[in-house]
Design a protein that fits this description.
Layout: E1 6-14, H1 16-22, H2 27-35, E2 39-45, E3 48-54, E4 59-64, E5 70-73, E6 79-87, E7 90-97, E8 105-112, E9 115-122, E10 125-136
Antiparallel strand pairs: 1-2, 1-10, 2-3, 3-4, 5-6, 6-7, 7-8, 8-9, 9-10
Helix pairs in contact: 1-2
């Protein structure tokens, strides 16, 4: 898992704006998110993993221990119970909404050498898949 650690820059994003729209993110925030070039930094200390994603506008930090549930407020404002598990070379995050009518999501970060393929889906919306690709910097 040490091979996961490092900094990665986004090189492509498919269906990202559509994904954000389906989550109810407003137009200005969607536009800002889609034109930015985020850098994702993956680190670990004493079993606690941190995935920090930074753009010129905002920095988001996800801290977790693999296999331990935690409460999270997502960048788009959803209150969720989250769980990150390890599946081979993948970190799988499941975010279950705490309120009815709020989207639950699943994201998979697949680490392939110097590339991370970040796939996001919304429960109950199988037609919409967002895929972002990051390259190690």
């Amino acid at each position: 898992m040490d091979s996961f650690k490092g900094k990665y820059e986004r090189v492509s994003a498919d269906n990202y704006e559509e994904f954000l729209k389906a989550l109810g993110v407003g137009l200005l925030l969607r536009k800002a998110a889609t034109v930015s070039t985020p850098v994702m930094e993956v680190s670990e200390e004493n079993g606690t993993w941190t995935i920090k994603t930074s753009t010129t506008l905002k920095t988001m930090e996800l801290k977790f221990k693999i296999g331990e549930e935690f409460d999270e407020t997502t960048p788009d404002g959803r209150d969720v119970t989250a769980l990150v598990t390890l599946d081979g070379n993948k970190l799988v995050t499941v975010q279950k909404a705490k309120k009815d009518g709020v989207a639950s999501t699943k994201s998979v970060r697949e680490f392939n050498g110097d590339e991370v393929v970040y796939t996001m889906t919304i429960d109950g919306n199988d037609d919409l898949v967002c895929v972002q690709k990051f390259k190690r910097v």
